[in-house]
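step=encode ok
step=design start
structure_in=
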């Protein structure tokens, strides 16, 4: 990222489930998971979801959290409905964790005030 850009030029701040569909569809998550050697994305993402459901928070680096976001958007699109209640809260937490991981990975010397 160059000095004339800030993270909010790239990712909506705050990133919420309701505004994360474009971010989730940036790449083919299945292909990326295979390339990274994570195996079956379905099983991997379900393990991450189950862990987050139990603990209340998501763990991982920006790539791992993005893969979870990718998969969760596919999951909910398959359900044909929008998450609400505790599900929405958990998914907003995923978005917040991803945003923090992305922003935290950018050297502060290259960030201009938003």
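sequence_out=
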């Amino acid at each position: 990222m160059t000095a004339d850009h800030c993270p909010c030029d790239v990712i909506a701040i705050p990133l919420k489930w309701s505004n994360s569909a474009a971010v989730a569809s940036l790449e083919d998550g299945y292909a990326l998971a295979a390339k990274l050697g994570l195996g079956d994305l379905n099983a991997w993402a379900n393990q991450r979801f189950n862990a987050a459901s139990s603990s209340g928070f998501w763990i991982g680096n920006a790539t791992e959290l993005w893969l979870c976001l990718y998969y969760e958007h596919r999951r909910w699109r398959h359900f044909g409905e929008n998450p609400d209640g505790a599900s929405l809260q958990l998914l907003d937490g995923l978005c917040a964790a991803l945003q923090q991981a992305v922003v935290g990975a950018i050297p502060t010397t290259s960030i201009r005030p938003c």
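step=design ok
step=annotate ok -> Helices lie at 21-24, 29-35, 41-55, 62-79, 85-104.
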